[in-house]
Write a structure and sequence with these properties.
Layout (H helix, E strand, L loop, with lengths): L2 E8 L5 H10 L1 H5 L4 E8 L6 E8 L2 H13 L2 H6 L7 E6 L10 E2 L6 E2 L2 H14 L8
Antiparallel strand pairs: 1-3, 1-4, 2-3, 5-6
Length: 137
Amino acid sequence: MSTHVVNEFHAKPGRGATSSRCSSSSRPRAGGRPGCEAISIRRNQDDPDNLIGDTRWATRQHYDDYLAWRTQNGYTAHFDQMLSEPMLIRYFDEIPFGPEPGAVTCQICFCRVASESAADAIANVRRKRGVDHLDRL
């Protein structure tokens, strides 16, 4: 499963536009690095000097290798000069959202359950108790 890396940047006052141009111009270099799956740069609507780099990598090691490569080439030091505080790097795992394989939908409240027999058992209990959702059992 991919690793999502969020880099948060706080540019020096008034330098958000320069920082975003600098970040955007690096996209082709980053996108060509091994393991890079996606890159986007986002600007805070309430604070234009606050940006995030939202990236997806095949593994955390791929991102760490990319960051080491950027640091060795001097880009990280150059970019850090535009920031009012150190860049914050956070690593996230994706949590799958949606039906699990083999799950079925309860016909009373439309919740997802692990199997048809579980859905039938829950539906029978609900019918007997006159409730329309598991939370009310």
